[in-house]
Automatic annotation (TrEMBL):
Family: Belongs to the RuvC family.
Catalytic residues (positions): 15, 76, 149
One Pfam match: RuvC
Subunit structure: Homodimer which binds Holliday junction (HJ) DNA. The HJ becomes 2-fold symmetrical on binding to RuvC with unstacked arms; it has a different conformation from HJ DNA in complex with RuvA. In the full resolvosome a probable DNA-RuvA(4)-RuvB(12)-RuvC(2) complex forms which resolves the HJ.
Gene Ontology CC: cytoplasm; Holliday junction resolvase complex
GO molecular function, one term: crossover junction DNA endonuclease activity
Name of protein: Crossover junction endodeoxyribonuclease RuvC
Entry keyword set: Cytoplasm, DNA damage, DNA recombination, DNA repair, DNA-binding, Endonuclease, Hydrolase, Magnesium, Metal-binding, Nuclease
Top EC group: hydrolase
Function: The RuvA-RuvB-RuvC complex processes Holliday junction (HJ) DNA during genetic recombination and DNA repair. Endonuclease that resolves HJ intermediates. Cleaves cruciform DNA by making single-stranded nicks across the HJ at symmetrical positions within the homologous arms, yielding a 5'-phosphate and a 3'-hydroxyl group; requires a central core of homology in the junction. The consensus cleavage sequence is 5'-(A/T)TT(C/G)-3'. Cleavage occurs on the 3'-side of the TT dinucleotide at the point of strand exchange.
CDD domains referenced in this protein's UniProt entry, alphabetically: RuvC
Residues bound to Mg(2+) 2: 76
């Protein structure tokens, strides 16, 4: 009997933010997980223009994709809080990272913070420190990152690996590219403006 080759895939996990963006990359070989890299992208505090911050997020996400060639992106969904301005900025940061992945035709999966914590620790209300400690045990690394945003990004990647099939509450639909996103979200995508030509113009 011919053995089927074990499938491998690289998963990029991102914890979006406008001050610090955490990321983690893992290689999945069958049921085995291996840490490739984790870290943060610091957005300079002096960057007052929010659009410039989004540009940096886009460029850094593209750089990670081009450097590590992930098969899929797993990203944390913005949490729902009372500060609408913070939610708006986090939503933009997340959307920018998603757009970067879709521009490279990388499938995207989105998970709620509670879903991620539940997958890693078994407790949807776990602290960042508890998530980081469990990841160190799962992936057998000792280094404690300067920012817990790094392990938050790594947690999203591991959460996605644990799903195998993206179903259940807290996980969202997968998009294989921009065309797929548009097809499934026609009401969320603005239609091109139809401008009438002035009478008599050619």
């Amino acid at each position: 009997m011919i053995q089927q080759p074990v499938k491998e895939r690289i998963i990029l996990g991102i914890d979006p933010g406008t001050a610090v963006m955490g990321y983690g990359l893992i290689k999945e070989t069958g049921t085995k997980l291996e840490l490739i890299s984790l870290g943060v992208v610091k957005i300079p505090g002096g960057t007052e223009d929010h659009m410039l911050k989004l540009q940096r997020i886009f460029e850094k996400t593209i750089a990670l994709i081009d450097n590590y060639h992930p098969d899929t992106l797993a990203i944390e969904a913005p949490f729902y809080g009372k500060n609408i301005q913070v939610m708006l900025k986090l939503g933009r940061a997340q959307g920018t990272a998603i757009a970067a992945a879709l521009s490279r035709n990388i499938p995207v999966n989105e998970y709620s913070p509670r879903k991620i914590k539940q997958a890693i620790t078994g407790n949807g209300n776990a602290t960042k420190e508890q998530v980081a400690a469990m990841l160190q045990r799962l992936l057998n690394f000792q280094e404690t990152p300067e920012f817990l945003d790094a392990t938050d990004g790594l947690a999203v990647a591991v959460c996605h690996s644990f799903q195998k099939i993206t179903t259940g509450r807290g996980s969202k639909i997968t998009y294989s590219g921009w065309e797929s996103f548009v097809k499934e979200n026609t009401k969320r995508v603005a239609s091109p403006l139809k401008i009438k030509k002035p009478s008599g113009s050619s």
